[in-house]
Amino acid sequence: MWVGVSAALGAGLLWGLIFIVPLVLGDYPGVVLAFGRYTAFGILALGLAWVDRSVLVKLSRADWIEAVKLSLVGNIFYYATLASAIQLAGAPMPTLIIGTLPVVIAVSANLLDRRSGRVDRVVEWRRLALPLTLIFSGLMVVQFGPAHAGDLTASVAGDYLAGLGLAVLAVACWTWYPIRNSRWLQARPPGLSRAWATAQGLATLPLALLTGLAYAAWERFAGPGNADFNWPFGPQPLLFVSLMAMTGLAASWLGTLLWNKASHLLPAALLGQLIVFETLAALLYAFFWYERLPVASELVGIVLLVGGVLLGVRIFRVRAG
Question: Is 81 exposed, middle or buried (0-12, 13-18, 19+ CB in 10 A)?
């Protein structure tokens, strides 16, 4: 239990970095950020594939098709929609919507387990109610406290609505991904976490390159584009390449490895609650970026978030016993 929780915490700390990158690289479209991040991830996976070759060669055609599906939805689509949402509507609103993932995934996973008859993993709704309520309440307090009261009206209405829609799409992508990924891992013997992360990186590389080429073609033929954006590295090539390499290694590969480890050890509904670590990490990094300390409402919200997660861990530990 606690090894799985620790792995999920590590993944959350690494994944929190992705909320800051669109702010640092505000001149780069979300699709380009997804292209850069997952091209770096894929190149890294090429080197790691040699280490995991004995496991990778045993993967079936169906396994590789699954890796492509997971990579397309959980990597390319998710980050392109999230980064675009942050740039269109500002960081607080997408963070709020993405922060609902623990609730959305826990409810979805528990519902699927109940329908499939996996009674050993089902938790009664009444027992989930309190931790999920605490988590959701904490997110609400953080996002609608005095420090963020004017954020949701700061954007142009069209941009705001577009960002809202993209953030909802990002939630849909990352509701499907962890549940599907967890099902795949739990249906196979242990020890596949690293190799499966590498397999997803290999599957992501051609998808990322195709995404970048598609964006370049669209910019070239469908409109004037951004005159300051020099494809493929943009107006700040050194910063762009550095951040893409960092997110490719830390957030994509290592974060995925840790999440796969947690997926193999924990029920999917509990895993959904632990995604709250990503939200907490994103808030922490945001405080550093804006060079300020959290206000009282933010501290209260963080306490509620952590309390909800700890209560959820206790509930699932008792259930497993």
Answer: buried
Question: How big is the chain, counted in residues?
Answer: 321
> What is the model's pLDDT at position 70?
95
Give CA separation, 26 vs 29, 85, 234, 241, 271, in Å: 8, 12, 11, 15, 31
> Considering only CA atoms, which of 149, 142, 171, 159 is closest in space to residue 286?
142
The residue assigned the tokens 């390449």 is: 241
Coil, strand, or helix at residue 129? helix
Residue type at position 248: G
Helices 255-265 and 2-15 meet at what angle, rounded to 10?
Answer: 150
Q: 10-54: per-residue pLDDT in tens?
A: 999 998 888 889 988 888 888 999 999 999 989 988 988 998 888
Contact present, 12 and 211 (Cβ < 8 Å): no
Nearest to 207 by CA among 73, 81, 46: 73
**Residue 269 phi, psi dihedral angles, 5° rounding:** -65, -40
pTM, 2 dp: 0.80
- CA-CA distance, 70 to 57, in Å (whole number)? 19
Q: Supply the Cα-derived Rg of the chain in whole angstroms.
A: 19
Tokens (6 digits) for 59: 């993967």
Helix residue spans in 59-146 (DSSP H): 61-71, 78-89, 92-99, 101-115, 125-144
Coil, strand or helix at 75: helix
pLDDT at 155: 47
- DSSP-assigned letter for residue 145: S
Q: How far apart are CA 231 and CA 240, in angstroms?
A: 12
Contact (CB, 8 A) for 276 and 99: yes
